[in-house]
Design a protein that fits this description.
The protein is built from 15 helices and two strands. By secondary structure, it is mainly α. It has a two-stranded antiparallel ribbon. A hairpin with a 5-residue loop joins strand 1 and strand 2 (43-44). Helix 5 (79-110) crosses helix 9 (169-182), helix 7 (128-143) packs across helix 10 (185-203) and helix 9 (169-182) packs antiparallel against helix 14 (274-287). The N and C termini lie far apart (99 Å).
């Protein structure tokens, strides 16, 4: 190709595959200014203009706006710099689209109302910091000013919802439900009662912390009773109940007597809200953790046995 040759708008269109209208637009906007004019006043372009036009088309195809294209062509910004910035912007857009897709699938599965759909969309758009802030506010409101079990509070604060960039519809739906749960005044009041019970125990000298092993032992023992079809109100339940209260007496360093059983019954009743267990199940779904097996049937049986 002759480096001194000049080309009309039609020539540029044929060489680039663009329409004459598009080439004229780039020329009018100053992206590809004419190199010269013909005696009749028609715009003419040299090889540099052709190269500039080809780069402009490539950048536009990649989604860059005209102002950014002009900055690159005028060497105010390099192609690598612009490409990196644009890739970052696309990452944000892709995450947003993935989240919208998950919300739409959740709406379709739930058959959500207009209000529920709007709420799901609003909650799903929250940033990671905003999601964490919402949960921390819930914990502050329920535990913040009380001397509750510090290990339990620390566990709650460390277990934040980490919604992935490409969530499933189940994860998006779980996040929306968790957010609604954290803002539910009735659930907050229920968790507040749990926190107050813990604080009262600590003021009485209890510093035993968390009791994961105890919980698993109770699950196993009550599981035996359930598997055997033992009703909590039956005489057959007594040996199971006695072994369970003995476990609590050992764990909390208390005598296995009527006072322990009354305290234990109050403890189980305060913690009986099924939404508390649902809270941890939803966190597990959001974060991709194994969902813990349900404890509600276990403690329902134990509570009924203690009442008897």
């Amino acid at each position: 190709m002759n480096g001194d040759a000049l080309y009309s708008i039609g020539d540029l269109a044929r060489r680039t595959g663009l329409t004459v209208k598009t080439v004229r637009f780039y020329s009018d906007s100053g992206i590809v200014p004419p190199t010269d004019r013909s005696p009749a006043g028609y715009r003419l372009y040299d090889i540099d203009a052709l190269t500039r036009l080809d780069l402009a088309r490539t950048l536009r195809d990649l989604g860059l706006d005209l102002a950014t294209v002009r900055r690159v062509l005028d060497r105010e910004a390099s192609v690598p710099e612009v490409a990196a910035a644009h890739a970052d912007a696309l990452d944000v857009q892709i995450r947003t689209l993935r989240l919208r897709r998950a919300v739409l699938r959740a709406v379709a599965r739930r058959g959500a109302t207009h209000r529920e759909t709007a709420l799901m969309h609003r909650l799903a758009k929250l940033s990671e910091d905003e999601r964490h802030r919402l949960v921390h506010e819930f914990i502050d409101d329920t535990f913040g000013d009380l001397d509750a079990n510090p290990e339990f509070v620390a566990m709650m604060r460390s277990a934040m919802p980490e919604l992935p960039d490409d969530p499933t519809s189940e994860q998006a739906e779980a996040w929306v439900e968790l957010a609604e749960l954290c803002q539910d005044p009735d659930f907050r009041a229920s968790v507040r009662r749990m926190a107050e019970f813990q604080a009262a125990d600590r003021s009485g000298g209890d510093t035993t912390g968390l009791h994961h092993d105890l919980t698993e032992a109770v699950r196993a023992r009550v599981g035996e009773a359930l598997a055997a079809g033992v009703l909590p109100a039956s005489a057959l339940a007594a040996p199971f109940t006695d072994s369970l209260t003995a476990l609590y007496a050992h764990a909390f360093e208390r005598a296995d007597d009527g006072d322990l059983r009354r305290w234990l019954l109050a403890r189980l009743e305060v913690a009986s809200d099924p939404r508390a267990e649902r809270y941890w199940q939803l966190l597990s779904v959001i974060n991709g953790w194994p969902v813990p097996p349900a404890l509600a049937p276990v403690f329902t049986w134990f509570t009924a046995a203690l009442r008897t």
